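User: Hey, quick favor. My workstation is busy. Could you predict this chain's structure for me?
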Amino acid sequence: MTEPADAAARRAVKPVICYPNETLPVPDLALYAQARAKAAKVDEVLVPPRDAACFRVKAGQFFRISSVEGPQVGDLNLWNAADLSERFYSGKSRALHGTHLTVGERMWSGFPYLRPMATIVADTLEWYGIDAYGGSVHDVIGTRCDPYTGHLLNGTQYHHCCHSNLTRALADATGLSLHQAEAHVHDVLNVFMCTGFTRDTGQYFMKASPVRPGDHLEFFAEIDLIGALSACPGGDCSAEHSSDTAACHPLLVEVFAPEAGALDEWQSPPVNGYDRSHGRD
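Assistant: No problem, here it is.
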């Protein structure tokens, strides 16, 4: 198509932030830090390479995801422990905070709940920022590697991608069938994954994660949670997204409980206050 005469003027229009977030409820990070200082570890789960595992965290507890042997990214799902229909909403978390999450930002649940599920309280990769390619870590833009896209693009039947890993883990943790569990698996927080969009084609890209053993991402659980974490078959995602040849490593999930009384000033957030009338009397 022929470029219009006012093309430059149209491109020069300044952007407007869709969801100004100055009025979002602000987490009390000082209170969380005070509670975390004397919290004791109550559980841990080691997620095997190219597989997934579930864990449970009570409201007011902390959970930490750590690299323990080598560079490895993980795909994280969260659900309300009492109601799997309330689950992490990556799209709205992205709209409220940005393409990548870090300290003070939150994992929000979907409609009609739309409340904080977990708040990031520590991130040893926060230093990375945004690199020269537009890449950053802990994204909420990728969906998760899955067997359906693999079959669509390559005709493969690959079962240890993150979608299948999360499905098996949730089925094992809840007693649901694979088909029932799969319906609850959702778009993820890509923990430790370094991603962005190319400037020329707008394509989603990945690059070698900067994560190293000892790095961690830590959360405060705002509600009772079931989590599922997949140690991605792409390893550090430096070359392939789903692979039997990429170097892969386990990920460690640890759960910490504060001392009694440490959170007396805190309350779990209620579900969203919209009346759900949708314009009908």
